[in-house]
Amino acid sequence: MMKLNTKKLISLSLLGLTSCVALAQKPVRPLYKNPALPVEERVQDLLSRMTTEEKVGQLLCPLGWEMYERQGEEVVPSPKFKQLIAERPIGMLWATYRADPWTKKTLANGLNPALAAKAGNALQRYMLEHTRLGIPIFLAEEAPHGHMAIGTTVFPTGIGMAASWSPELLKEAGEAIGKEMRLQGGHISYGPVLDLARDPRWSRVEETFGEDPVLTGVLGAAMVEGLGGGDLSQAYSTVATLKHFLAYAVPEGGQNGNQAMVGMRELHENFLPPFRKAIEAGALSVMTSYNSIDGIPCTANSYLLDQLLRNEWKFRGFTVSDLYSIEGIHENHAVASSLEDASLQAVTAGVDVDLGGDAYTHLIRAIREDRLQEAVVDTAVCRVLRMKFAMGLFEHPYTVPEVAAKEVRSREHIALARRLAQASITLLKNEGGLLPLSKSPTQRIAVIGPNADNCYNLLGDYTAPQAAGNVKTVWDGVRSKLPASQVEYVKGCAIRDTTAMEIEKAVAAARRSDVVIAVVGGSSARDFKTQYKETGAAIADKGILSDMESGEGFDRATLSLLGGQQTLLEAVKATGKPLVVVYVEGRPLDKNWAAEQADALLTAYYPGQEGGNAIADVLFGDYNPAGRLPVSVPRSVGQLPVYYNKKAPPCHDYVEMSATPLYAFGYGLSYTEFAYSELRIEKQNAHTFTVSFCVQNTGTRDGEEVVQLYLRDEYASVSQPLKQLKKFQRLFLKQGEKQTVSFILTAEDFKIVNREMRNEIEPGTFEVTIGKASDSIQLTGNIEIADRYLF
């Protein structure tokens, strides 16, 4: 047996002891920081380590635009941000990159895409390095028609995008918006807006996809798919947030935030289906609305937020209040006696995140004093943390400023903005084939009106300041078609202000021209003179006559043209020159005079940054218009609400006028003609039918048609719509080309909400109509349903 050296034994023992101590001192990585583990395991580990304050902090979303400081070409966290983090944990920020008169962020002091990426990186780094658990922050951004930030692409507003009737284009727009947001460090996109717009007096019609649940649902789902479809592992996927839950666009009196007078069956038949379809497409967040329904504020409605969203629809994302709508439970609706009571009502109803970030701080004391079970907050926190882990923020919290500078507002995205604007423009009248206009070297054009050369009036609300040259106006577009010597511009008047009228100058220009293009309508352009509520809604002030007559907070009592616009139109018409009237608008304004007196009439909605080029493309025939109205155009506010799918019985005429709209849902003209024929209906099974027919371009130009299939249940146990859109398709046909179109109607298309509030298919006859618009039916057939079916 060998004898061991005593000194060596002592040395080996000391070495082993040192190794054990070193091993004991080596920090063990928490499970939640291990990307190899399942998301749920990481969430539960992190939750177990969090204090009550840290948990509630994940549910707070304060305003973000004061949380950074520009220092030359670098961006650092602001003292306000550092103070906020020292005082309370937070889980996300809202509108960090937002720039507009409300935030007082301009081209001079705001963030271009590269600086935005640097700002996001700086805030993330601070959160990781200066908070106990190092939880990355979510950055939530407004993105209804483009990311609301400097240097991004501005697409047509929602009502314009809807006029394209093209889910393919909206998916592309969603992809572009998601990419631009993520490149700059944003994660949560607020939009699409799925409110059904049945009252054009309401100030936010421009943000919606119109009045119909099927069109809204299909387009909303397409945009959500473009935003990533809920797969947060994709590089450019966002947490798409649907707005506003629920029935927000039908406020009493058309006033933003007023109660919605809507019954439960109506909610299930019309207002809820678009949200469900978008959630099925992958939307991971839902925003509550400011209004109440049947006396219950939507931000405290447990039926909507818990029973319906969670239990019935199995929604797996998180909900968020609208800005300060939790405070509104107490301050506006007066159904809570204190802010703490309002917070308890919201969180127990199912609101996960507090947009504004103040109300939910009261939850901490409520938990400590046993007025709220901590498990309620735990559930909400887990919903937020799952999204952060799924997006990979713990492993990849930063973005690359150089890539943002290169790829935000790329040529491809600008081209897409033009294509979407072209597709949305809706031709309402073309007397004698005045359009398209000639590019003859002898043709002289007068371009007049307050929206002819005002870039911001083309963009709509929720739009950032624009660098010179970014936005193409109608004046720019016309000059791209004809030499400068052949075109002349006169503003004529403002949208609202009447102190600087140029009517005589406009008339003189009209007399020198061969054709007049008058660009009128409305505006949602904010300026630095307008005052704002703490929610960001503008305050209408008759003492300040900016152009703004639409956009959040600017509800209307009438729909007529404001300021001197009507006077301008009548004066130009009196010259006898052919008159083309183009409406740039955020809501369907009164078009009665133009419908009678103009030779050609179009609406371009708010067409976005490429709107001027797109309008000129249509006017001069480089693009054959195929936009279709996503909302009815009323003859008078006295008709309101006027929408195509009202329930039986049919309307009767008023003493003064017809009860029908001036222009119906789905209406729009083309420079060519289309004929429909050969309707066939084939039964596949008890509740599935194939409907096919032929469409032929019988005109003299290539063009697009939007075919529309409507259904009517002839007799049912509860009143049904006189007609309801079920299917549609936008298709391109060359001159003379004939194409067969097929739609499949399934059980989902035949169901009703019965007297017991259950979805049911009742036996009976269904009328199938195929048309160019809701009031232009070309083919009619019937389907017989023999078997009853309860869902």
TrEMBL record:
<dbReference type="InterPro" id="IPR044993">
    <property type="entry name" value="BXL"/>
</dbReference>
<dbReference type="InterPro" id="IPR036962">
    <property type="entry name" value="Glyco_hydro_3_N_sf"/>
</dbReference>
<dbReference type="Pfam" id="PF00933">
    <property type="entry name" value="Glyco_hydro_3"/>
</dbReference>
<dbReference type="InterPro" id="IPR019800">
    <property type="entry name" value="Glyco_hydro_3_AS"/>
</dbReference>
<dbReference type="GO" id="GO:0046556">
    <property type="term" value="F:alpha-L-arabinofuranosidase activity"/>
</dbReference>
<dbReference type="Pfam" id="PF01915">
    <property type="entry name" value="Glyco_hydro_3_C"/>
</dbReference>
<dbReference type="Pfam" id="PF14310">
    <property type="entry name" value="Fn3-like"/>
</dbReference>
<dbReference type="InterPro" id="IPR036881">
    <property type="entry name" value="Glyco_hydro_3_C_sf"/>
</dbReference>
<dbReference type="GO" id="GO:0031222">
    <property type="term" value="P:arabinan catabolic process"/>
</dbReference>
<feature type="domain" description="Fibronectin type III-like">
    <location>
        <begin position="705"/>
        <end position="774"/>
    </location>
</feature>
<dbReference type="GO" id="GO:0008422">
    <property type="term" value="F:beta-glucosidase activity"/>
</dbReference>
<dbReference type="GO" id="GO:0045493">
    <property type="term" value="P:xylan catabolic process"/>
</dbReference>
<dbReference type="GO" id="GO:0009044">
    <property type="term" value="F:xylan 1,4-beta-xylosidase activity"/>
</dbReference>
<comment type="similarity">
    <text>Belongs to the glycosyl hydrolase 3 family.</text>
</comment>
<keyword id="KW-0378">Hydrolase</keyword>
<protein>
    <submittedName>
        <fullName>Beta-glucosidase</fullName>
        <ecNumber>3.2.1.21</ecNumber>
    </submittedName>
</protein>
<feature type="signal peptide">
    <location>
        <begin position="1"/>
        <end position="24"/>
    </location>
</feature>
<keyword id="KW-0326">Glycosidase</keyword>
<dbReference type="InterPro" id="IPR026891">
    <property type="entry name" value="Fn3-like"/>
</dbReference>
<keyword id="KW-0732">Signal</keyword>
<dbReference type="InterPro" id="IPR002772">
    <property type="entry name" value="Glyco_hydro_3_C"/>
</dbReference>
<dbReference type="InterPro" id="IPR001764">
    <property type="entry name" value="Glyco_hydro_3_N"/>
</dbReference>
<dbReference type="InterPro" id="IPR013783">
    <property type="entry name" value="Ig-like_fold"/>
</dbReference>
<dbReference type="InterPro" id="IPR017853">
    <property type="entry name" value="GH"/>
</dbReference>
